[in-house]
Amino acid sequence: MKNPFYGKSFVAINQITSPSDIDYIFKVADKMKKVIQDEKVYEPLKGKTVAVLFYQPSTRTFTSFVAAAKRLGAYVIDINEMTSFSSAVKGESLEDTIKSIYQTTGANAIVLRHPENTSSEIAASVQNIPVINGGSGTAEHPTQALLDLYTIYQKFGRLDNLHIMMVGDLKYGRTIKSLAKLIARVSKNSRITFVSPKELRAPKDFIKDLKGQVEVTQRSSFGTAIEDADVVYMTRVQKEWFEKEGKLDDYENLKLKFIMNKHVADRMKKDAIILHPLPRVGEIMLEVDNNPRAWYFEQMRSGLYVRMALIESILMK
Ligand code: NCD
Questions:
Q1: Could you tell me if the CB of 234 is within 6 A of ligand 1?
Q2: pLDDT tens track for 175-218
Q3: Residue 278 belongs to domain spanning
Q4: HEC readout, 183-207
Q5: Which atom of ligand 1 lies nearest, measured to the CA of 56?
Q6: Residue 8, in any domain of the structure
Q7: Residue 61 forms beta bridges with which residues?
Q8: How many domains does the chain contain in total?
Q9: Residue 236: CB within 6 Å of ligand 1?
Q10: Does 18 share its domain with 73?
Q11: Which of 20, 116, 244, 249 sits in a 20 to 30 Å window from 228, CA-based?
């Protein structure tokens, strides 16, 4: 099978052009799962360098990218406080920082998380090395979508004929945007139901584009749709963007409009699952963690496998 990722940046879901791209990366992820589970030493990237640069907070994405690159044997430069310790503090542009990191570290690839929507595209255009988008503004989080879909595939053994419900902050949340686009591209006969207060609906253009590719419904309550969903993907209301726009009162009014508690979880189908990119800030109650439908911790382990798969595929033929 030809490696469609080799030598390329991975900055947006529209780079996934066919279900075979997903078959490819999931096969490599399965291999990585075995490497980790069997505690094998597998270091094909010895001699390569990966820089992981984060301008926004992160627990899972940062640690799993760092762990992924290290497990593969790469030398890793990881800076999770770019906003405090890099020359960004002095006003350096992202372009100059990327060029500099390339020169000073000899990086073969850069993983970037940044608050600007187009940051990864910009980074990928200034230096001739692959950039992996670890979250860009409110626009995209493509590796999260890959790991979300990998989790769904682990559970259901298929990508088609699924009803996926996405709940919460669909306006500022980037994970749901990447995941919805990915489903629209690679899954047949699936349906997406978006659930949010009307103030937090996904952008109109985004919905319009999706509607051409997949069946989409927008709702402002769980209603009976929750009883039919295979996946309920919860998200937090993204306080930082309200803060940035000086609208913290709106945040207070809109947060926690949709809460997954044990009563809601029990209304779901027996073999349905609950996902969440995390962090959660109240929208999934702790009482749900023991429900067999709770899959959000398994979901984050998928991040290690999928990110290992992506880094290896980008850096090795
Ligand atoms: C998400 C993100 O950064 O967009 N977190 C993550 O990467 N798992 C979701 C969020 O912050 O709400």
A1: no
A2: 999 999 999 999 999 999 999 999 999 999 999 999 999 999 99
A3: 142-300
A4: HHHHCCCCEEEEECCHHHCCCHHHH
A5: 3
A6: no
A7: none
A8: 2
A9: yes
A10: yes
A11: 20
